[in-house]
Structure formats: structure tokens, C-alpha cells
Records
---
Amino acid sequence: SERTFIAVKPDGVQRGLVGKVISRFEERGYKLVGLKAIVPSKQLAEQHYADLSARPFFKGLVEYMTNGKAPVVCMVWEGKDVVRQGRAMIGATNPLESAPGTIRGQYCVSVGRNIIHGSDSFESAEKEINLWFGKAGELIDWEPATWGWIMADN
Ligand code: GTP
Ligand code: MG
């Protein structure tokens, strides 16, 4: 079933918001299939944000993701429509435009410190999951006991 890559950025980790983010996805009914904290290499961050490499904030963005002042908490979540729903739960890129009640709309005010990343399409999700969880065995297939109560077809 569908999977997406979600990451709590170093500002979210510093601010103690990892648990809140996990709870929102868990409580919605999504399944956690991968989780780790890492300080990404410069190369990994540059690859992850490759489509932004021409933007003026790119260098600062990579510095902030990789400087080790806090890790990035990487997750893979699985469930119905999770890529699109994940983006909706996160809210607009600029927190000043994120709806109240979204993660960014509730917890932040700066576009450069917007605490969380979420894949923006099915294709990005696949690419990002392979990039951040490249090693075999890091993603776990499992069946939550609640699955049948959450995943009805109609
Ligand atoms: P991600 O989920 O992190 O990919 O955010 P997004 O998809 O909502 O936005 P986008 O991919 O366009 O930008 C990636 C990240 O770059 C954003 O989340 C911000 O952290 C950062 N960013 C984007 N625009 C700006 C900007 O104008 N200034 C600064 N400082 N950072 C920006
Ligand atoms: Mg993006």
C-alpha cells in the first residue's frame, strides 16, 4: 500500500516536537514502517533538495539540515492516500500560510524553520524513501492489530 517519507527537521527535534508529529500520523490511522535519527551528509541533503539547488536559500538549507546541532528524524508512513494526506496534515510551505491545525500552522512561523518535511508526490516519495532508507531491512512490513478497524474499503 502507499508510503510516504516524512522527516522532522533539526528545528523540530530541538523543539521537542517529534512525539507530536508521530502522534498525529499514528492517531490518524497510518502505520509506521521505518524510523531513525541521523545527521545527514551534505551529499544526502543536497540530493534530497536537488530541485532547489538554484535557489538563494539552498546553501543555508543544506547547512541547517546537516550541521549536527540536532538530527533529522526520518520516518516512512504507510496507508490510504498517505502522500497527499501527509502534505495536507503538514500544511503550506510558508507557516504563515499554513492553515491553523496543520502541523506547520500550529507549531511554526518561519519558512526556513518549518520543522517538518513530507514527500510532495508518489514519485518523490519513492525516490526519497530509497535515498534516506537505502539499506535493506530498515523498513518493516507488519500488520497493526487495529488495521481492520481502520482500513475499510467503503
Ligand atoms: P519540504 O516538505 O521540506 O520539501 O517543504 P515543501 O515541499 O513544503 O517546500 P519546498 O520543497 O518548496 O522547499 C523545501 C524547503 O526549503 C522548505 O520546507 C523550507 O524549509 C525551505 N524553503 C523553501 N522556500 C524557502 C525560502 O524562501 N526561504 C528559506 N529560508 N527556506 C525556504
Ligand atoms: Mg518539498
---
Amino acid sequence: MGKALIIGAGGVASVVVHKCVQNSEVFEEIMIASRTKSKCDALKEKLDGGKTIIHTAQVDADNTEELIDLINGFNPDVVINVALPYQDLTIMDACLATKTHYVDTANYEPLDTAKFEYKWQWAYKERFEEAGITALLGSGFDPGVTGVFTAHAQKHHFDEIHYIDIVDANGGDHGLPFATNFNPEINIREITANGRFWKDGEWVETEPLEYKTVYNLPEIGEKDCYLLYHEELESLAKNIKGLKQIRFWMTFGEKYLTHLNVLENVGMTSIEPIEFQGQMIQPIQFLKAVLPDPATLGPLTKGKTNIGCIVRGMKDGKEKTYYVYNVCDHQECYREVGSQAISYTTGVPAMIGAMLVMNGEWQKPGVWNVEDFNPDPFMDALNKWGLPWHETENPELIDLEFTSAGEKA
Ligand code: NDP
């Protein structure tokens, strides 16, 4: 069907490339372009020989002119941005200049402020409309599949959704004392930031990891879940009409939190630049350099992830509760594509989003979140491409008030 330019060559990009190659009828030709070309070449070497033609290139995705040259040279139908959130705007600028569709998995975050918000990318809406091209934002798992799950619940199960709890559980263990499952810098910035949830039309702010609850997850069991701010809360609070509350919960083990506390207390998670031996460095970037590369966790990680949405609302005049989730096995992912489940659950939806933009099913000039589109082809593709989902009615619920079910962590 066409050509995709994949920017980035890290954990998530590796899965995107594997999945595009599996889906060679759609992705006839791909280019992997990243800062370190040797990583792109290594991926090409591993996957060359199938029907998809693979090219590689070096690119600095902070540099719009370089990106424009690259896009003009390859002429892709879509750019899949799986570099870092810092590059979202430069890549969107290049897509505008070349009239190329855009897909990413994480919203823009300025390097010097740990504050991710859609406002910068939503501000491109009119320009994308005028250029006649689609930007699909946040097509990973969360954000991404969680928004598609919500749109599916809205379309097929509810007249009005009132409450959503998104629960992201990683029951996997890599056996290392401390490591993050995706880019450590992005991951730690997210977790050490203040928590936030949306209630009755307003944001309620919490201390970082201030509230926890215990939830019994299918195929994983009981886990401590901590309330975090997560980027899909912003778009879902805006897009789901009648919503009264939305919260996001993530599981963390005690060992992980103890390490994180110590690192925070000694200043290692700070993004404030300090002078070190005549050079300005951000402590968190130094920390990233000494932590295990998430891409190396694949062979070590055992266990499963479970990510899903617990939804409450009204159907045919009656109250209804509903749960939709995916369970993903780290070892199975490793056997299939050489990555653990966190990269897998992000890379598969990125490929699916790009496919739907390319085949026209999710093409609409402007800047959109996943829940703005018909969820059906995405839900079907999840089953086909490795992330089958399950749905149940009357699931266990998380108390709407913190005072009873939630406790101060
Ligand atoms: P990695 O750090 O493993 O990979 C990032 C890649 O981007 C690296 O190959 C890196 O190059 C490249 N890169 C960074 N800066 C530039 C630049 N200026 N120019 C060109 N290439 C650059 O990260 P992950 O694969 O773990 O994560 C990728 C994205 O996925 C992130 O945005 C992350 O937030 C998002 N994500 C989304 C999730 C979701 O569910 N929605 C879940 C997990 C991740 P180099 O190799 O040289 O360092």
C-alpha cells in the first residue's frame, strides 16, 4: 500500500519496525531514521529479506530542516514518531512543510519543564486542516489503546459514561534491583511529577504517588496501584461528553519505589542543570546513562502486563459497569520480536494507527486523538496484531472517594 518513515530506533521503534515488516502488504517500504544510525542499521540487518523494503538514515529530529530533506528524499505516506516527546513539534513542522501524515505515541514535553500537555500539539490543528493532512496523537497503549477502549465502550456499551479508572499494571519482573521499562528519563519525569485527576469539571492535584489502592487484576492478581497524572486524561476529559471523573492508576513494587525515593532524595531525578567537572548536565540525564537500557530487559523480564479501563455510566436508563483490558506476556513478546511487553504494547498500536491513517480509515485533516475516530477497525486490528482484548460487565470497582478504598500511600 505505501511507505512509512519511522523516527527513532529505541525499544518502541524496534517493535514498530518488526510489526511493519509483518504487515508488509500495508508497509511496502519503510525508512528507519534516528540519531544513531548504527541502531537503525542493526534493525535493518535483523529484519531484511522479507517483502518490506527497509532503508536507514541518520537524522537529528530536533532539526526541522534536516527532517524536511529526509522526508522529501523518501516521500513517505506517514511519519511514525517514536523518538522522544521533545521532538514532537519539530517533526510536526516537517510534516506540515511536506504535507505528510503524522503519528506519535507521547505528547510534547519541553526539555526544561516536566510538564506534558496537548496544548502545544492541539495548536497545530488549523494548520494540519489547511494542509489536508492528519496528525494522530498518542497512538501507543496509554495513551492510545486506553482511548480506543473508551471510544469502544462509548460506542457499544453506554449511552453516557460517567466515571473511568484506567489501570496500568506491570506484573513483570526483570530481576534487576532498579530499571525502567521504557526511556528512564521520560518514565521518571512522569512518576515524580504531581498526580492529578479530573473530577466535576476540574483538575484535582495530588502529591507525587500520594494515593494508592489495591486492585485485583485478571491474570496478574492483587497489586498496589498509585494515582498518577497521565496524558490521556486530558483528551478524554475533553472528548467524553458527560464524564464526571477520570483517574489513572499505575502499579509499582516496593523495591522500585524505595530506589526511586533514594534517587529523588539525593537529587538524581532533578531536571535542573548542574555544573559537573566544567560541564552543565541534568542529573536525570546522567541517571539515564547509568541505568539499564530498557531495550536490554527483554530477555530478563518474566510475567505479564494488564492495562485496561474500568467504566461506569448509563445504558438504557440503567447504571452499568464495564471493564475492557489487554493482558500481554513479556516472554511471548520477547520470543516474537525480541522486546519486553512495555515496548510491545506501545509499538503495536503505533503500527496500527499508522496503518489506519495510510489506508484512509482514520484519515481526517487536523490534529486528533485516538478517541476522535471510529474504534472498530482499531479494536479488530488489536486482536489481529498481537494485543487481544477482553471485556466483562460488573467488574470489581475502585471506590470513587479516596477516603474508603484509596489510602494515603
Ligand atoms: P528510547 O529511548 O528507547 O528510544 C528513543 C529513540 O529516539 C532512540 O533511538 C534515540 O536515539 C532517538 N532519538 C532521541 N532524540 C533524537 C533526536 N534528536 N533525533 C533523532 N533521534 C532521536 O525510548 P522508547 O523507545 O522507550 O520510547 C519511545 C517513545 O515512546 C517515547 O516518546 C515514549 O514516551 C513513548 N512511549 C509511549 C508509551 C505509550 O503507551 N503511549 C509507552 C512507552 C513509551 P539514540 O538511540 O541515539 O538515543
